[in-house]
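Anyone? Bumping this.
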Amino acid sequence: EAQVTQNPRYLITVTGKKLTVTCSQNMNHEYMSWYRQDPGLGLRQIYYSMNVEVTDKGDVPEGYKVSRKEKRNFPLILESPSPNQTSLYFCASRGLNQPQHFGDGTRLSIL
Amino acid sequence: DQQVKQNSPSLSVQEGRISILNCDYTNSMFDYFLWYKKYPAEGPTFLISISSIKDKNEDGRFTVFLNKSAKHLSLHIVPSQPGDSAVYFCAATRSSNTGKLIFGQGTTLQVKP
């Protein structure tokens, strides 16, 4: 089954404690992205990757890091999380000239 | 600066009637537009798209209209069904930069039986 898998689905943590949200896709897609969804703001792109070792900033990259060492994985790293990063996060992937497939989301709460 | 705007946070229609969801954009460089549907506790799923070389694209009950001069697109759902109740997001991109995608704020559609 074609899917984008994010882990964890839920996380409550504290300010400053480094965390990583993993994202994996099994469709051999070139493109992968991370978004955050906040009330009234819709989905905002954090980072995207067009292939292995090729990443670029989206609209809200501050406070986040990503890496793309393998085609299937695109982890999102919060080195020093802060409360304003409390949000619902989505990973997505797509092939060339195809629409994005989204994961089911990760709800992060940073206290 | 919100480049893609959905000015109606919510819409309620009767089952069987038409639902019209609207989206405006400001960047004239956008040339590819998409609509996504999102149910609670799930990720968005792709619904329909349109290229700027067209002004209409139809897929079953769903039709997207694009008015480039007004920088406006709309999604028509006919007839609306209760299962269509969800949040709908429009999104825009420049096909020359295939990584970046800008979403609107979303419109919550409720279809009443």
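Late reply, but here is one note on the structure posted above: The two ends of chain B are 38 Å apart (CA to CA).
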